[in-house]
Amino acid sequence: MIDVRDLKKEYTEEETPTQALRGVTFSIDDGEFVAIMGPSGSGKSTLLHLLSFLDRPSGGVYTFNGKSIDDMDDRELAHVRNKDMGFVFQSFNLLSRLSVYDNVEIPLLYSTIAPSKRQSLVHEAVASVGLEDKLYVEAGRLSGGQKQRIAIARALVTDPNVIFADEPTGNLDSVSGLQVMEVLASLHKKGRTIVLVTHETQTAEFADRIIRVKDGMIESDKAVTKHHRGNVPLK
Amino acid sequence: MLIRDAFKTSVRSLTHGKMRSVLTMLGIVIGIASVIVLMSIGQSAQQLILSQVQGIGSNLIFVVPGGSGNGKFSAPASAQGIIITSLVERDADAFRREPSVTAAVPEVRGVAEIVYGSNSANISYEGTTEQFFEVRNLPVGKGAAFTKSDVDSGAHVAIIGPVLAKTLFGQNLDPVGKTVRIKDVSFRIAGVLAKGGTGAFGVDQDNLVIMPLTVAQKQLLGITYYGDVVVEASPQYDIAFVKSRITFALRQDHGITDPNKDDFTIRTQEDALSILGSITSILTLFLAAIASISLIVGGIGIMNIMLVAVTERTREIGLRKAVGATDTDILQQFLIESVILTTTGGVIGVLLGAVLVALVYLGVTTFGGIDWVFAFPLSAVLLGLGVSTISGLAFGIYPARQAGRKNPIDALRYE
Fold first, then answer.
1. B12 contact residues in A (CB cutoff 8 A)
2. Which end of chain A is more exposed for a tag (fewer CB within 10 A), N or C?
3. Structural domain ending residue among the three candidates B214, B238, B262
4. Are B223 and B55 in contact (CB under 8 A)?
């Protein structure tokens, strides 16, 4: 599904070039649950942005579902983001003045899915995170954990192949964080590919595989021992 | 993104900040209402002026001394204050000999003080022939008009306007038969005009004094030429034909072979209507242009608020892009918001304009006593709505493009 070869990203700030990624190579197969870990400034978020088509690499090759990012224009990238990718952000990024329903519906507005099917898809997505009773509540009135579960519902609503989660428990207490990770784990069990960026070891241990990034390079890429997944408080 | 969804999303954003939307719209509302009111006033004034000119009769031809060149708007030299003595009795006689002419009425004008006892007034007087009253459709109410023999003999008689009659003689005294003095010449009042008001070209009929041509020329002005000659065409003939006949007669009389050297100007009511129509249309456009300045100010207000909205909603833009919105989707959404604001402002502006136009109409007719015509031109409504929509697009495009071009990562990180 995801294949990166010698992926590089260079930023220029105040005329000084900074290498955020210095040549990263790995693959992620369909149905995998991968955590990308690393300290602040290691390049993990940059890597997630490249993988999720929010940014373009400065060098190397990125192939998603067999097609290189270099062969796609911005419109195609937006289409792939809408159809094949779901996003969960640390700060939820819900539109607080809109209802839960309206928030979850947003990706569908940019999809080719017929308007008549939208209602049932939104209901299903919100039900899958266990918040169907909050459907018409203003998003700003929800707790942090509920907001992140709604953000997951929004990521699921177009039935994407892969969900990218950027520090999804970063703004949550341990109980809410655990609930969110359980939702992601259950999605993975149902066959969904999950790519997670985190700096928390307990959160990363929900994954099958952990890629550690340091100074813009891969430090390690290992499978996770499963013995204590889901039993450890996150914070 | 479907237009319907973009529209729904935009309406939701605008209704979220109702007060801001209303205040933003206000500039457009005032601008459109101003355009509507000024265009309506312009058109009412145009209709009023044109109806007055139409009131003087379509079969009249005005001959004034002095050429006016070939320009439609060129004024005859005499109208510019230059004394020209070329139009004389011989010319009027030549007109009368034309079978297509039923009357040729010479006119001379002056201003003077009229005195009766201790009362006096500054007036315009007009020296003319007995046919003036019929040709100019100004019947005499009290008393009688002067006659041909009065004109021939230079009788010191005068017909005065109804307001002047009250000014000089009060409510109870009958002016007919009384003697007044104009420039130390005595005149017997033979009659009072039946109707007053303002005639064509702003002639104040209320205070007009009309006297035999010969008296005005010899006793008051000391001239032998005419100020103008009003020619009444026979109804059996086409007005353009009559105009060509009297042009021919005048050229023969004055020995002119080159039409560019005409020392006279001949205008029909149609010419006057065309010139006045053009002038008032330009005036209306000028008024609309002034009003449109407020529309530009309103539009800049819209652009300013939309730029603020784009900045405030940067994270929302980032999110929408992350979940699949293209640059065009974002541009479209902000542009629709801007157009909804201006078009709604335009509709409210048109309605407000209609109310103001009705108030102007009521005020002018009730308190001004003028036969004001209620004009609410459809063109102004269409222009108002069109301009408001276009200003939404014009002033919304820059903020919308700014929104559409935002990089999703920078937008998502925006604090």
1. 98, 102
2. C
3. B262
4. no
Q: Which residues of B touch A97 (CB under 8 A)?
A: 16
Q: Are residues B325 and B220 located together in one domain of the fold?
A: no
> Residue B210 in 3-state DSSP?
strand
| Cβ–Cβ < 8 Å for B226, B106 | yes
CATH superfamily for domain A30-57+74-223: P-loop containing nucleotide triphosphate hydrolases (3.40.50.300)
Asked whether residue B54 carries a pLDDT value surpassing 80, the answer given is no
> Which residues in chain B have their CB less than 8 angstroms from residue A46's CB?
none
Amino acid letter for position B116: Y
Residue A185 three-state SS: helix
Residue B9 contacts A, CB cutoff 8 Å: yes
Q: Which residues, listed in sequence order, are joined to residue A42 by a DSSP beta bridge?
A: none
- Calculate the average pLDDT of chain B: 87
- Contact state of A93 with B325 under an 8 Å Cβ cutoff: no
CA–CA gap between residue B74 and residue B89 (Å, rounded)? 26
Of B5, B315, B321, the CB nearest to A109: B5
> How far from chain centre, in Å, is Cα A219?
21
Distance from CA of B313 to the nearest CA of A (A): 10
Q: Supply the range of the domain harboring residue B292.
A: 3-53+274-413
B243/B290 same-domain check: no
Instruction: Name the DSSP class of B368.
Output: I
- A54/B5 CB distance under 8 A: no
Quick check: A110 and B16 CB within 8 A? no
Query: What pLDDT score does A126 carry?
Result: 94
CB contact under 8 A, B322 and A81: yes
Q: Is A75 in Cβ contact with B1 (below 8 Å)?
A: no
Give the pLDDT of residue B267.
Answer: 87
Task: Let me know whether B282 and B255 are in one domain.
Answer: no
Q: How far apart are CA A92 and CA A155, in angstroms?
A: 11
| CB contact B314 to A (< 8 Å) | no
| Residue where a domain stops, chosen among B262, B297, B329 | B262
Res. A231 pLDDT band, cuts 50 70 90: very low
Q: What are phi and psi of A227, to 5 degrees?
A: -60, -30
Q: What digits encode the pLDDT tens for the residues B322-370? A: 999 999 999 999 999 999 999 999 999 999 999 999 998 888 888 876 7
- Above 70 in pLDDT, residue B92? yes
Contact at CB, B323 and A154, closer than 8 angstroms: yes
Question: Who among B316, B324, B412 is closest to A78 (CB)?
Answer: B324
For residue B200, count other CB atoms closer than 10 A to its CB: 20
| B160 in the same domain as B99 | yes
Q: Is there a contact between B322 and A154 if contact means CB atoms under 8 Å apart?
A: no
pLDDT digits (tens, 9 = 90+) for A20-35: 999 999 999 999 999 9
Same domain flag for B209 and B93: yes
Q: pLDDT, tens digit, for every residue of B236-291?
A: 999 889 999 999 998 988 888 888 888 888 888 778 778 788 888 888 788 778 77
Tally the domains of chain B.
2
Residue B80: inside a domain: no
The H-assigned helical ranges of B364-407 are 378-404
What's this model's pTM, rounded to 2 decimal places? 0.71
